[in-house]
Amino acid sequence: MTILFKKAKIYPITDECFVGDLLVKDGKIASIGQNIYSGASEVVDASGKYIFPGFIDAHSHIGIYEEEVGGQYGDGNEMTNPVTSEVSVVDAFYPNDPSIKRALSGGVTTAMVLPGSANPIGGQGAIFKFKNIPIVDKMVIKKLAGLKMATGENPKRVYGIEKKQMPLTRLGIASIIKDYFIKVQNYKLKKEKAESEGIPFSDVNPQMEVGLKVLNKEIPARIHAHRMDDILTAVRIAEEFDFKVIIEHATEGYKIADFLKEKNIPVVLGPLFGFRTKLELKDMTFEAIKIINEKGILAAMMCDHPVIPLESTTIQLGTALRYGANEENLLKMITINPAKILGIDDRVGSLEPGKDADFSIWSGHPFEFRSQVESVFIEGEKVL
Length: 384
Prior knowledge:
Blueprint: E1 2-10, E2 18-25, E3 28-33, E4 42-45, E5 50-53, E6 55-60, H1 98-105, E7 108-113, E8 121-129, H2 136-139, E9 140-150, H3 153-163, H4 170-196, H5 206-215, E10 221-225, H6 228-241, E11 245-249, H7 257-263, E12 267-269, H8 287-294, E13 299-301, H9 313-320, H10 327-332, H11 336-342, E14 359-362, E15 373-378, E16 381-382
Parallel strand pairs: 1-4, 1-5, 6-7, 9-10, 10-11, 11-12, 12-13
Antiparallel strand pairs: 1-2, 2-3, 5-14, 7-8, 8-9, 14-15, 15-16
């Protein structure tokens, strides 16, 4: 099936915006340009409309903290052990979460869903597309996309204060993470030894296997860190064990932006729109977006759903314009940048021939508060 969208204002993201046409064929973008003639089976007059790639949130808890059921029903944190690398959000994701439809109404089509930040080693994150198929396995596009870890106040509160066990301090959090990767290193040596001797390795440990993927750089560590000292600790540990790291939240990352740029560390900023609920957030500012982008750091913007509902993605970003942020950079923070951070930029994040036909049609520019999403397509299928 082919659909041709005519005379829209198109934002490819990786190229200049223009008024022209978008051709979709078999779930892919076949062509973008002006005056496309294709013999399409359906032609849509999109005059006066705006077409953007489907927005991507690189850090979300949608589907595991469901709407309308209350906090006690949440499945985001396995708060029974400081190390739970064996758990996966795929096994808790609820495809009928009402907030998924609301996310689509904000132009969001893809999200990286991660466990919460209660545990120093929290579990496996996955990437989902919000397709109209209420089957988790058909929504997942990358089942194991990162290992969630956490520093700072959350693990201290959950374990030290509430459970009266380690970690009580930042020292303890770092120690638990290091101890885990020392065990993974030993596990790796044991496994390699068995393989070199041609002996079947029967001592398979799910906790260690995920850590092994981190050490082998098959997946990144996604480390929750708000304060600058916690960010530095996360990077120090990543360098000690030689694994890839992405900093989640990075609230005070703007204070050490030169360091992050020097180390080539990607960050997923936010949420920045809301109440400063804890000490780690006291220096939270929208000016961080401008600083981080001007330093040339690969950065995406998160809502941390349900902290900020995903449908409010453009409201949060639009607010950053008041603090001097660049519009082009802001749009990249919810399109091509998160796609690069998640390793899916060959499929999504921009409007280019050969990529998945994931896009939204707006009545106006998304940063104009009166603009609305009129329709959303994922892989060429209308989902909203």
